[in-house]
Design brief:
single chain; 553 residues; alpha+beta; 8-stranded mixed beta sheet; 5-stranded mixed barrel; 9 helices; 15% helix; disordered C terminus
C-alpha cells in the first residue's frame, strides 16, 4: 500500500483502462492505492511515475502527529474502511429506474432492466477489449411509452478483456442487473457503459421465475429482499409488455428483395444439424425458408420448434436462400407466450402459408407431444427430480446423499457415431477393446466374440434442463455398462454374436430420437466422488422405453 498525501491531483494509469483515472483529493481524506509501481524517465530532467493499479478508494486521513508532551494521550482509533463499507457509503444497493439513469451523466449507476435485444461479444481493436451492446427496458423506458424525450430503450455497452466475461442472455426477456455502470451521452442519446475489469459487474436472472442467477461476472454477488421485489415487479412489467407488443424486424422475403445490411428477423427453427465446427440450422417465417451456419464460438444453445430472433443477418451473395452472420450477430430465443412468437407460429402453420413453408413445417413438426422416453427401474426415496444446476453445484450432496433423479433433455451424445458406443472387455483381465479391432478378420461363421469377452456400452450424454435453459454450457452424464451398471439402459441383446448393420441402424435411431427437442428422459444419477478432482456423474437404474420399436421415427 502506498499513500499519496497532498492537494494536487494525481493521474493514475491502469492496465485495464485506456486513458487515465483522475483522483481528486477531498478535504480530510487521503488516496489509498493497491498495486505496484515502477519509475520511468522520459528525459534526464523530467520523470514520471506509472502505477499499475488494482484498486483505488478513499479512506479517512490520519491526523498529523502532535508534538510530544509529558501528558500521555491515548492514540486515536481510526476505523478501518473496507471496500464493502465504501460500497455501502456510496449507496451500493440503491437502484435507478432507467429513465432516471439517463437524465444526466453519472458515475456508479446501479440498474435492473429487461433485455429487449443484445449482440454477441465481439472484439474491438480500438480498445483491445471485447464488448457487446444491449437494449434495456423497464416500466419507465420502453417502446411506445408515449412521453416526449423518453427513448424506446437504453443502450448498454459492456466491456471485458475476454469474451467469457460478457453476458450471454440467450433469450429475449432475460433480466440483467448492472452495478457501478457509468451514465453517458453518445451522439446525444443516453447510454450506460459497464467495464467488468475496472469496477462494473453484472448478474443475469431468468425473465419468468426463480431467484437463482443464471450467470454472473464475479465469483459472488449480493442479493436481498430489495432485489426480490425489483425482480418481481420487473417480471410483471415484462409479461404485460411482451404479450401486447411485437418485436421489430423484417421478413425474409422482403430482406431477399431489398438486401439490407445487418437486418433483424423473426424465425421458426425447423431443423438443427450438428457439425464439427458448429451447427447448420434451417429456419422459416411465414414467407420463406432459409439456412445458416452457426459457429461453435457463438456459444448458442438452440432447440427445434422454437421461435428465435436473428440479429444482424445478411443474405449470402453466392448461396441461394442462405444467411450469414457477423462476429456481433446473435440469435435470441423468443418465449412462445410472447405476442410475436404466437403470431409467427400461427402464420407458419396456417393453411394459407406458401407451399414451400408449409411442406417444411409439416416435415419437421413432431407427430407426438413431448414424451418422457425412459423410466427409473428401482424405487428411491427422492420422488421429485432435482435441477441439474443444483446437482452439479455440489449443494445437494453435502448431506451425504449420492443418488438423484433428474429430468433432462439430451442435446448431444458422444461419441457422435453410435457404432463407437459399443465396446468389448475381457472379463478376466478387464482390458477394454474397440469393437472394430475385434471385428477385423471375422468372416463367415466366425462372427462371434472370442471366449472370455463381453460387450458393454460407453458414452456421454450432454444434457440440460429448465434450470440451465439460458446457460450455454451443457452438463455431462456418463453411461457405462461395465460390471453391469445401468445395463438395461439400451436393450440390445447380442449374446456373443457380432453386431450387424441392423443393430447399428437401431442405435442410430436411438441417437436421433434422444436428441430431439420434444424428448425428455427421467434419469437416476449416481454421484461418484474422486479424490482431489470434480465428482463424476454416472447413470444407474434407468432404462429407455423407445429402442427397437421405431415408433418415434
Amino acid at each position: 500500500c502506498v499513500f499519496f498525501i497532498g492537494t494536487a491531483t494525481t493521474e493514475i494509469y491502469t492496465r485495464s483502462l485506456v486513458g487515465s483515472v483522475r483522483c481528486v483529493q477531498e478535504t480530510g481524506y487521503q488516496r489509498r492505492v493497491h498495486g505496484e509501481s515502477r519509475r520511468e524517465t522520459a528525459t534526464p530532467q523530467i520523470g514520471f511515475e506509472i502505477w499499475i493499479v488494482n484498486q483505488v478508494y478513499w479512506m479517512p486521513k490520519r491526523a498529523s502527529p502532535k508534538k510530544e508532551s509529558s501528558k500521555k494521550v491515548a492514540p486515536k482509533k481510526v476505523k478501518k474502511v473496507t471496500r464493502r463499507s465504501m460500497d455501502s457509503a456510496n449507496k451500493e444497493d440503491s437502484y435507478y429506474k432507467l429513465k432516471d439513469s439517463s437524465t444526466e451523466e453519472k458515475e456508479r449507476i446501479n440498474v435492473y432492466g429487461t433485455i429487449l435485444d443484445c449482440s454477441a461479444p465481439y472484439f474491438m481493436e480500438k480498445t483491445s477489449k471485447y464488448q457487446c451492446t444491449i437494449k434495456l427496458i423497464d416500466d419507465t423506458v420502453y417502446p411506445g411509452v408515449g412521453m416526449k424525450g423518453i427513448p424506446d430503450y437504453i443502450t448498454v455497452t459492456l466491456f471485458a478483456k475476454t469474451a467469457a466475461e460478457i453476458p450471454l442472455a440467450g433469450k429475449i426477456g432475460t433480466i440483467i442487473r448492472l452495478h457501478r455502470a457509468q451514465s453517458k451521452k453518445f451522439k446525444g442519446k443516453p447510454q450506460l457503459n459497464c467495464d467488468v475489469n475496472i469496477k462494473g459487474a453484472w448478474v443475469l436472472f431468468d425473465g419468468t421465475d426463480g431467484m437463482t442467477e443464471l450467470s454472473k461476472s464475479g465469483k459472488s454477488h449480493t442479493f436481498n429482499a430489495q432485489d426480490r421485489t425489483i425482480l418481481k415487479e420487473l417480471r410483471e412489467f415484462s409479461k404485460k409488455f411482451f404479450s401486447k407488443n411485437e418485436l421489430d424486424g423484417i421478413t425474409l422475403k422482403e430482406a431477399a428483395k431489398k438486401r439490407p445490411k445487418d437486418f433483424d428477423c423473426l424465425c421458426y427453427v425447423l431443423e438443427i444439424k450438428k457439425k464439427a465446427n458448429g451447427e447448420t440450422i434451417k429456419v422459416c417465417d411465414a414467407d420463406k425458408v432459409v439456412k445458416l451456419d452457426i459457429p461453435t464460438t457463438k456459444g448458442l444453445s438452440l432447440n427445434t420448434h422454437e421461435v428465435v430472433r436473428i440479429r444482424s443477418a445478411n443474405y449470402d451473395e453466392k448461396k441461394a436462400d442462405t444467411l450469414t452472420l457477423n462476429e456481433y450477430s446473435n440469435i435470441l430465443r423468443v418465449p412462445k407466450e410472447y405476442k410475436s412468437a404466437k403470431e409467427l407460429l400461427e402464420k407458419v402453420k396456417d393453411k394459407t402459408a406458401p407451399q414451400g413453408v408449409k411442406a417444411q413445417v409439416t416435415k419437421h413438426t413432431p407427430k407426438d407431444k413431448p414424451i418422457v422416453a425412459s423410466q427409473i427401474l428401482n424405487a428411491h426415496k427422492q420422488k421429485e427430480p432435482i435441477q441439474l444446476k443444483e446437482l452439479f453445484s455440489g449443494a445437494a450432496t453435502k448431506g451425504g446423499q449420492k443418488y438423484f433423479k433428474v429430468r433432462a433433455s439430451v442435446m448431444e451424445i458422444g461419441p457422435k457415431d453410435p457404432k463407437e458406443w459399443l465396446c468389448v472387455v475381457d472379463k478376466k483381465t478387464k482390458k477394454q477393446y474397440k469393437l472394430e479391432d475385434i471385428m477385423k478378420g471375422k468372416k463367415g461363421k466366425d462372427k462371434k466374440l472370442p471366449d472370455g469377452m463381453e460387450y458393454y456400452f460407453k458414452m456421454q450424454l450432454f444434457v440440460n434442463d429448465k434450470s440451465v435453459h439460458n446457460d450455454s454450457n451443457l452438463y455431462i452424464l456418463f453411461f457405462c455398462t461395465v460390471e453391469g451398471k445401468c445395463s438395461e439402459f439400451i436393450n440390445l441383446k447380442l449374446g456373443r454374436d457380432l453386431p450387424t448393420e441392423e443393430h447399428f441402424k437401431e442405435l442410430k435411431r436411438i441417437y436421433k430420437t434422444l436428441t430431439q427437442a420434444w424428448v425428455e428422459l427421467d434419469l437416476m444419477v449416481e454421484v461418484v466422488e474422486v479424490s482431489g478432482k470434480q465428482p463424476v456423474y454416472f447413470l444407474v437404474d434407468t432404462a429407455l422405453t423407445i429402442q427397437l420399436t421405431g415408433q418415434f421415427h
